[in-house]
Amino acid sequence: MSTVFVAASKLPTPHGTFIMHGFQDEATGKEHVALTMGDVGSGEPVLGRIHSECLTGDALFSMRCDCGYQLEAAMKAIAEEGRGVILYLRQEGRGIGLLNKIRAYELQDDGADTVEANERLGFAPDMRKYDMCEVMLRHLGITKMRLMTNNPRKVDALKNIDIDIVERVPLQTGKNPHNERYIATKVGKLGHLYNNA
């Protein structure tokens, strides 16, 4: 496993102060972050989210997806509980990178859905990997999670690294006229679980 822990620091946010743990994948140079609040290594199930980087949604307030809304909702839910973890993984655009994501958006502007756009660019619909989570969660002492996700692939990925998913917590937020088709495509073509998509 090429992912290693580098350093940790406090991260004050509008939702409270998290501890930010930095990790690096030495094989790719990618930097990943875990945000924790409270005692996550007690052995009790931890409320958590695996969140892949989305510059447009997380930082630029894009309404084309629900990523930024989900990140904020997850931080808020953890703060309300006083305990939890978010693994923030640097795999933009379902793993195709930012510039290819913009190319995919251009195809979507011309009528393609999010899966069709990725495939036209020569990519699989979802290129993300979750192997780095094993080192990150082991470092934090987390073995059981209540996972905030609508994506069954994330549940399976964590089960495959021996994380006990005691509950899947739906994270359905941010639906708007700009992302209705995007959410429906995630449900219809990628198997996401979403009520009334």
Automatic annotation (TrEMBL):
Under HAMAP family, the record lists: RibA
Q: Which reaction does it catalyse?
A: GTP + 4 H2O = 2,5-diamino-6-hydroxy-4-(5-phosphoribosylamino)-pyrimidine + formate + 2 phosphate + 3 H(+)
Instruction: State the family it belongs to.
Output: Belongs to the GTP cyclohydrolase II family.
**Organism from which the protein derives:** Parendozoicomonas haliclonae
Which pathway, metabolic or otherwise, does it act in? Answer: Cofactor biosynthesis; riboflavin biosynthesis; 5-amino-6-(D-ribitylamino)uracil from GTP: step 1/4
Under InterPro entries, the record lists:
GTP_cyclohydro_II, RibA, RibA-like_sf
Chain's role: Catalyzes the conversion of GTP to 2,5-diamino-6-ribosylamino-4(3H)-pyrimidinone 5'-phosphate (DARP), formate and pyrophosphate.
The protein's name in its UniProt record: GTP cyclohydrolase-2
Which residues are listed for GTP binding in this entry?
Answer: R49, I50, H51, S52, E53, Q70, E92, G93, R94, T114, T149, K154
Which residue numbers delimit the GTP cyclohydrolase II domain? 8-170
Keywords on record: GTP-binding, Hydrolase, Metal-binding, Nucleotide-binding, Riboflavin biosynthesis, Zinc
User: Is 4Fe-4S one of the keywords UniProt gives this record?
Assistant: no
Report any Pfam family annotated for this entry: GTP_cyclohydro2
Q: Report any one BP term from Gene Ontology.
A: riboflavin biosynthetic process
E.C. number(s) listed in UniProt? 3.5.4.25
- Gene Ontology terms for molecular function: GTP binding; GTP cyclohydrolase II activity; zinc ion binding
Its gene? ribA
